Amino acid sequence: MVKAIAVRNLHGQVIQELGRQIVGGELRPGELLPREELLAERMIVSRTALREAMKVLSAKGLIEARQRTGTRVREKKYWNQLDADVLAWRCASMPTNDFVDKLVEMRETIEPAAAAAAARRRDDTQLAALEAAYRAMEAAEELDAWAEADLAFHEAVLNATNNELMASLFSVIETALGTYFLLSARTAANFKYSLPHHFAVYEAIRRRQPEAARRAMLRMVDDSRTNIRRRRRTKKAS
Amino acid sequence: MVKAIAVRNLHGQVIQELGRQIVGGELRPGELLPREELLAERMIVSRTALREAMKVLSAKGLIEARQRTGTRVREKKYWNQLDADVLAWRCASMPTNDFVDKLVEMRETIEPAAAAAAARRRDDTQLAALEAAYRAMEAAEELDAWAEADLAFHEAVLNATNNELMASLFSVIETALGTYFLLSARTAANFKYSLPHHFAVYEAIRRRQPEAARRAMLRMVDDSRTNIRRRRRTKKAS
DNA sequence: TAAATCTATTAGTATTACAATTGAGCAGGT
DNA sequence: ACCTGCTCAATTGTAATACTAATAGATTTA
Hints:
Two copies of one chain form a homodimer. The first copy, chain A, is mainly α and about 240 residues long. Chain A has helices at about 10-25, 35-45, 45-60, 85-95, 95-120, 125-140, 145-160, 165-175, 180-185, 195-205, 210-235, and strands spanning about 30-35, 65, 70-75. A three-stranded antiparallel β-sheet of chain A has the order 1-3-2. In chain A, a hairpin with a 3-residue loop joins β2 (about 65) and β3 (about 70-75). In chain A, α1 packs across α3. The longest helix of chain A has 28 residues, at about 210-235. The mean pLDDT of chain A is about 90. The interface between A and B is medium-sized, with 35 and 35 residues.
């Protein structure tokens, strides 16, 4: 479901390894992990490499090191839940359905608001980008091209927001969901199903009508969610 | 405006130093920073400590290191905008008003949605926490106590959401805004001004009325924003 | 009993050495 | 003149080692 970020470095691997274990629940919050020397030995890396990894995990809020006491896994409430890696590890570990629901809920909250903001503040360049994305969706002949254009469309909306925070949040969520929400609902036969929804969003943003944009985006997201749910049931049945 | 996270460690200081410089624009994207040996020497730390800091900055998406080439500052689009530190550095560097507006915009989209979700999914324990926070606000005699209770109230709402992502996002934003949005609008005289708003939110959540909760929270946030704006004008005038 | 102190353990920092990667230039062939 | 591939050197990546600093817990002392 999730793209594993390619890791060439050694400490990168260590980060992944430990991060996965912590987020996945093998290492439970409060648990004390072996002292650096031992752990390094076990993972067959130098203490240097291990420590570089630990610093990163610590920055993500997953662990906390104190002299003499050792390093322990922090409570979940301190984790940087919005960190791309943490999110990815959760996706990789969790019995996904309820977590996906949470991600979708975030998306449902963000995107309509973003559409409204875009309608308010977009400049002509950003509108042009949006239009280009829409035309690409319209012209798409096959699923791949359509998915790519769809993604570009949503990015363009977020971009027109002129609020990097919104854009960033969406991109994190979207990465976590992978191609899930883009592709899941549509079969090869009807993948252009939501084109009218996209047009409505585009039009509202073009005309600078925030409320219309919000409603249009809401309809789109809603629709996508019901499709995902339907798909989920189908899968379960099969 | 922002709480500087207390840093005891050396690499912690280095992280702050470099992070601030990058986010603050002293080191521009694309710029190549000195090789580790030199940089370490300049900052009067060992290469070890420097590298531990670099790994963290790299995890935040601020820099990218490649062998032979060196380490360079990444484009803004790759930064983890939602990282607490990155946010804090931005707050510390930016001519704040427009950035604060962006944060407020995030808050305005999140909180009403959160209130609605809370009304849908809260359990009795969470409701009790919410009630406790409300009573504390009601009972508050002075500004400090009120601010604390207010914060607890919002946390309780987010918590009742049962969606850690929402909770996390809010907590990040709230930290970035510091006590700004909690305190800025109210003078010592009328700090209990928004109590009715809070009651409305509480009631709607208690009665499991999502839409009512959303609207109530929206009114509250809207109101808070106008107060902030008013305050801003006043400040400018003075 | 409580307060001060010592001690052993663990993370933090520094230093040094070497390995791995790779851009750039050079050599050789066509 | 142009491509190909090789070598070289610069920079990050990894390791090993030694020492420093903080502190939980035992020990001593008032």
